[in-house]
Amino acid sequence: MTAIAIPTTISSGRRKLVNVRQRSLLVAKLRTLWILGVFVLVGTCALLRIVYLGMTGVSTHDGSLSDLLVPDRGEIVDRNGVPLAREFRAYSLWFNPRAMTEGASLIHTPDEVADGLLRIFPDLDRALVLERLKSGKAGYIRKSILPDDANKVHALGEPALEFPLEATRYYPQGSMAAHVLGYVDSYGKGKVGMEEAFDDQLVSPEGRTHPAVLSIDFRVQSALEDELGRAMAESQAKGAGGVILDVDTGEVLALASLPSFDPNHVKPTDMVISEEQAKLGEVPHGFNRVTNQVYELGSTFKPLAVASAMDAGTITDLGRRWSAHPLHLGRFTIKDSHSMGDSLNVAETLIHSSNVVTAQIADELGGVRLKKTMEALGMDRRPDIELPARGFPIWPKGEWPRLRTMTVSYGHGIAVTPLHLASAYAALVNGGIWRPATLRKLDPSDVPAGHRVFKASTSARSRQLLRMIVRYGTGRKADAPGFRIGGKTGSAEKPGAGGYRHHSLISTFASAFPMDKPRFVVIAMLDEPQGTQATSFQRTAAWNAAPVIGRVVPRIGPILGIMPDETRDIDISDLKPLIPNEVRASEADGE
């Protein structure tokens, strides 16, 4: 029988194949076990974490889920809920010199990139952009850009120009009420205005969900800024300021300082100026002329001095006459801008704005009593307002000598802010109660009680006298039919090196309306107005500041619920005999 040989190569190949298959299965099982072990470990950790949190009550974050849905900084709105400042997310243009891992930070030259950016943003400062691009330091080129502009920048092909999406503060009304609102810097801190005053409130949990409500009415604010800007342009003034105040609550309905700035795009020059500009008397656009700058406000102080004298009993007869000839006190002489005759009574003194007679009235009153009145009106301290920018008055300390008492009575020798004047006039016409000004909208229960400065009878007489000034005196151009405006002009020379600068005036008109039942005080001030064709080549308040009131009041009256009514007015019949017929029939010269 023949033996059959079996090839050994076949059997050995099968054994090798079996070994490979077994090893593959073993590796697969091990991998599966590793994966399963990882899942078990993760699941166990998660379960332990859940049990721990459930037992301890510890939260993974301090706030609630709703915190993610509210802005980082709360809104600011006007008294009617109109947004004045809010937060939203927007693209910014950021220069990142490390975007390119190798070589230069820019593909094109800095000049070419700067020119490309200027084609997209024509208002950019080319020199500043070039300085940023050449410095090699990261930083903003522009904040808050539109998506379409971001696409245009992207088309420049520069990886170093990036577009981070950031929370941005936005002011829907632009530059309107900029000095009231202020702005938020790149670190998220409020600066200058109510952004700074409300800083802690706006970032608090409560402030983020409930807007901060201001007393400002943006419609009234817009009208005031518009008319001040017009007057500033017509008179070629360096600046202007104004405030509208509720006489019974102290709430500020509008507060304007011009020139202004745009809080959406604050420039370094808005807040800081050069030494050369400062020497020329310039101030930054961000400087608040209403609450931070102090001025000698001239003849607007005369009704306050007269009211103080009536309160003290040194004036009991408004028909009494004083000499109107210049007063000589040592080497000083007090005189009027023009001759006003031999003598004047109280009504004529205010209508014609006589320094001489007002000084005599103050002299009889005495420095102690006049100073006490001014202190009660807050003239010796910074103005009462929430804004951080509040100027300290130039206030003569100690006992006032005779000459000082006289000059203060007609608004010289003491410098205060226009807001000081507004609060003082509110007390003068509202029955005699002084209250602090506020930019917060007040509930009736929150209105401060204030303190009495003038008797109610003195306030009533003052309302008559202020109305007569507008009807027959230097305030004629402030009159608006049906609105019963009363007020006083003031044109004061600005002090300078070596004395007063005779050709540099602060022109002011302080007013209230309607005088039969005063609701609001309106102050308008112009800094260094010039005599132009629009102002009949006159620089005094009767020709430039008073017309602002005459235009503003008809615009804001109906908004504030005061409709014109020519059938009613404050009764001045008992004072009319104090005014000569020719004065009532003709226009008086304006101060």
From TrEMBL:
Give the matching InterPro entries: Beta-lactam/transpept, Beta-lactam/transpept-like, PBP_dimer, PBP_dimer_sf, PCN-bd_Tpept
What GO MF terms are annotated?
carboxypeptidase activity; penicillin binding
Give the principal location in a single coarse category. membrane
Residue ranges of domain Penicillin-binding protein transpeptidase in the record: 242-539
* Subcellular location(s) per record: Membrane
| Residues in Penicillin-binding protein dimerisation domain copies | 71-187
List where the protein spans the membrane.
33-55
Keywords in alphabetical order: Carboxypeptidase, Cell cycle, Cell division, Hydrolase, Membrane, Protease, Transmembrane, Transmembrane helix
Biological processes per GO annotation: cell division; cell wall organization
Name this polypeptide is given: Cell division protein FtsI (Penicillin-binding protein 3)
